[in-house]
Design brief:
This protein is an alpha/beta fold and about 300 residues long. The chain has two domains: about 10-150, Cytidine Deaminase, domain 2; about 180-290, Cytidine Deaminase, domain 2, CATH 3.40.140. The chain has eight helices and 16 strands. Strand 4 (about 60-70) and strand 5 (about 70-80) form a beta hairpin.
C-alpha cells in the first residue's frame, strides 16, 4: 500500500447516500476506462462497482450479476448471455426489477427490450440496436472499455475514514489454493458439485459478514449477508426446494445447528473455511460432502 493517496477532483454528485448529504467524485491514480450514457449518481457508482467486482470473477463465461442498493441479489452463469440473465432474474424476481445489472458479454436488442428505466446496465459491449433501444426507453448504461479480464488489476485499497483514524486495507483478491482445498468427508462430491461450490465460494468474497450462498447449476438460489444466527435458515428458506442437491458456501465454519439445518434442507455439498471433528462426524453420518478451503471471507 502507498503511504500517500492522491485524489483529483472530478465533479460534485447530485447527492450522497441520502438527498441530505453532499458527495464528490474524485479521480484516483488507477481507474478503469468506461463510458456512461448519462451522469452516474452516488448509488450508481456503488452498485456498478459491486456488480463489476463479481462479474470479473466470471469474465471468461456468460455471466449476469444483479445488484440493488449496494447489495447482491443474484448471480448466474449460462450457455448464452440471455440464458444467464433469465437464470439470474429467477434468483430473485422481485428485486431484479431495478438496480444494476452487469454482463460479461455483449448485450443485444433482445436483452435490451427487457430492461426498465429503473435499471443501470453494464457490459463490455452493446450492439447499436441495443443502445438505440435503451436510449429510447431512457435506460442508463455503462460501456466498460477496460477488458474485464484486466479489471482486478484496478482494484485498489479500501478507505474508511473514522473519528478514530483512517483505515486503509487491501482488497480481498484471495483465490482458492490447491494445497488447502480439501474434500474432508467420506462421501466425495461430483465434478458438477465442485464447480457449483467454487462458483458459490467466489461470491462469498463480495457479501457482508456471516455470508451464506446456496447455489445449484451455476445459479444462486439463496443469499444471506449481514445476518448472524439466522443466516443459514434465511439463505435456505430463500432457496426453498432449490436447496435439494444444491451446494452451500459459508464464510465461517458451520455450527452443529447450521449443519442440521443444511441436512434438513437436503444440501449435498458444503464448502467452508474449516470444520470441527464433531461437525465432520455428523456430516459423514448423513452422507453430506464437505470441502474445506483454509480461507475465511468473513468481512464486516
Amino acid at each position: 500500500m502507498e503511504d500517500t493517496i492522491k485524489l483529483e477532483f472530478i465533479k460534485d454528485l447530485t447527492s450522497g447516500a441520502t438527498i441530505n448529504q453532499k458527495a464528490r467524485l474524485y479521480q484516483s491514480h488507477n481507474m478503469i476506462d468506461y463510458q456512461a450514457s448519462s451522469e452516474l449518481t452516488y448509488s450508481d457508482v456503488l452498485n456498478v462497482t459491486l456488480a463489476l467486482n463479481i462479474a470479473s470473477e466470471f469474465y471468461d463465461v456468460c455471466a449476469t450479476v444483479l445488484v440493488k442498493n449496494n447489495t447482491l441479489t443474484g448471480v448466474a452463469l449460462g450457455s448464452t448471455i440471455f440464458d444467464s440473465f433469465q437464470k439470474a432474474v429467477d434468483c430473485n424476481p422481485i428485486d431484479s426489477v431495478c438496480g444494476a445489472i452487469a454482463f460479461t458479454k455483449t448485450v443485444d436488442v433482445e436483452l435490451a427490450r427487457l430492461f426498465t428505466p429503473q435499471h443501470i446496465i453494464v457490459s463490455p459491449e452493446f450492439t447499436a440496436e441495443a443502445e438505440n433501444c435503451m436510449e429510447s426507453k431512457k435506460i442508463k448504461y455503462v460501456k466498460l472499455n477496460t477488458p474485464l479480464n484486466e479489471y482486478k488489476n484496478y482494484l485498489q485499497e479500501e478507505i474508511c475514514v473514522t473519528p478514530l483514524g483512517t483505515i486503509v486495507q487491501e482488497m480481498n483478491k484471495k483465490e482458492l489454493d490447491k494445497d488447502s482445498f480439501k474434500v474432508v468427508t467420506n462421501k466425495k462430491p461430483t465434478v458438477e458439485q465442485i464447480e457449483d461450490a467454487i462458483f458459490a465460494w467466489k461470491i462469498t468474497k463480495y457479501i457482508k459478514s456471516a455470508g451464506v450462498v446456496v447455489a445449484k447449476d451455476f445459479k444462486t438460489t439463496g443469499i444471506a449477508q449481514g445476518l448472524q444466527t439466522p443466516a443459514f435458515e434465511y439463505a435456505l428458506n430463500c432457496a426453498c426446494d432449490n436447496a435439494k442437491e444444491g451446494v452451500l458456501a459459508s464464510d465461517v465454519p458451520l455450527t452443529m445447528h447450521d449443519l442440521n439445518v443444511a441436512i434438513q434442507n437436503r444440501i449435498s455439498l458444503i464448502i467452508q473455511p474449516g470444520v470441527a471433528p464433531d461437525i465432520l462426524k455428523q456430516a459423514n453420518k448423513f452422507e453430506i460432502s464437505m470441502i474445506t478451503t483454509g480461507i475465511s471471507n468473513f468481512s464486516l
